[in-house]
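Appendix B, example 12.
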Amino acid sequence: MPRAFTPKIVTANDLMMGDVIYLTADGSWSRRHADALVAQTQEEAEELLAQAAAQQLKIVGPYLADAVIDADGTPQPVHFREAFRTRGPSNYHLGKQAEGLEA
């Protein structure tokens, strides 16, 4: 029996900066997980991933990540790995951590 679909977002790394980024509703990329466009069906998820994969001059390694929607309608990471990626580098305080852009 196949697993039930769970909401997904598209995440990747910025090709030039290396930052973790998220595909948004207008097709651009954001460093904030909360800005990510959420796919509610497998078809939507596959379409968003294809859209991301076509942007090889901007991003590297796009993939689908599970998300849950909080009470405010904002996507939140499900797995530890994705929560960890929202915080930026783990060995020093810079990037998202220094700019207050976590989650």
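The chain is about 20% helix and 25% strand. The chain has a mean pLDDT of 88.
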